[in-house]
């Protein structure tokens, strides 16, 4: 599973599980720590979310929100479609022999962080008129997965799908290799570098050396780019990156099994690994045992600031517990006969932690339960397991997360592109005080308050504003509104709501 290194942290994931990790990884600056912590909280998105919330409140005062929300499907989703075709003036890829050189990429992080890296690698190659060599995956991340690109993604499809945009090759041709005087130059671009940086700092070296490798490549390209390059990002992320046949087959099989039991289901992505919890500095209700266990893990990061668990919680910086996710779903109106698919890695406290969620929703499934022995060949490979969960979460009717990591963001964006499929992100800041006061109110009041907290966090089309948030999460350049006449009736309703992207 994707450890979800926050977009602002430059370093490795919280490499805490194993004591022998190099000190350089463990010793991060306080900034790094804060960056990582932010992944629980959606600092990046919170500004927008609050403004939406305010809008929603205002519009509610005006009577706009009186109708009940369909929790399984947005009423407005069919007004939009994913649009990532290139415009008429987007020129064709520069052929290999005329390109400015070969761009090698080493990605970084878990599966979804690397996905971002691959997506942006294609765009950087385009900016540089370079020939891209199929990116190398990270074998040394927290997840210790030695899968290569070809083990996870359909490489021939990747190359051919993008052939008009960027020339991609599997390796630098031998002839070129032999003619090079020195091995490829290696460098690392700063986070979120602009196209101007690549043209000014990287291109001259590429031209001089003919081959250049960019390392630790994940969030190395600016969020905001011109519209055509944003659309290219979408073509890579949503079309060119297709999992290999064995992964697709087992993923689809799990989806089919879910659908054989129920016509619609909820997928929950739970991040609840001990490391993540320790890192958050939050308290999850497990008493002295939890305090000492998480405290011990926390000591492995020597530079973590002292945090007051209560404060972190009220700031919305703690991922929801499985129980809290269940309470939120019940309160939103999902019946106890709903089917859940739970995507997760190791869960702190195991069965005992999951029990309250299972009591709320007895139809509880995960890949281990559904796939049985078919899962065996994938077990040694964390990224392939993450890919299987990605497929089921992508296909689910409703997708819910307890965190704001890379997988949560990437899937939230993808589901918007694929027709605004219902995606629920907990508004942790508001929910935390509500959970605390839960026993002081009756069930109906609690439910009403949860519903009101979650307005603006339900994956509705109007939650998106062009240029706001991470492009991965809000791919506004790639979502278009359908011509009006087709949607006359729904459109009239929509006109009473806050403005939407066009
Ligand atoms: C890339 O190629 C196009 C078309 O040949 C050219 O107009 C553009 O200036 C080139 N850019 C770079 C960075 O080489
Ligand atoms: C599920 O909910 C129904 C009513 O909403 C209730 O009667 C039933 O006891 C619940 N079942 C379980 C297993 O909690
Ligand atoms: C919907 O159609 C009706 C009549 O067909 C028309 O009067 C109305 O203006 C249309 N509304 C929108 C928003 O296009």
Automatic annotation (TrEMBL):
One GO process term, biological-process aspect: fucose metabolic process
Keyword list, A-Z: Carbohydrate metabolism, Fucose metabolism, Glycosyltransferase, Membrane, Transferase, Transmembrane, Transmembrane helix
Keyword Protease belongs to the record: no
CDD domains assigned to the protein according to its UniProt record, in alphabetical order: O-FucT_plant (cd11299)
Transmembrane intervals: 25-45
Gene Ontology molecular functions: glycosyltransferase activity
The keyword Ribosomal protein is annotated on this UniProt entry: no
Domain of life from the UniProt record: Eukaryota
Alphabetized InterPro entries for the sequence: FucosylTrfase_pln (IPR024709), GDP-Fuc_O-FucTrfase (IPR019378)
Record-linked Pfam families: O-FucT
Assigned protein family: Belongs to the glycosyltransferase GT106 family.
Protein name: O-fucosyltransferase family protein
Organism annotation: Dioscorea zingiberensis
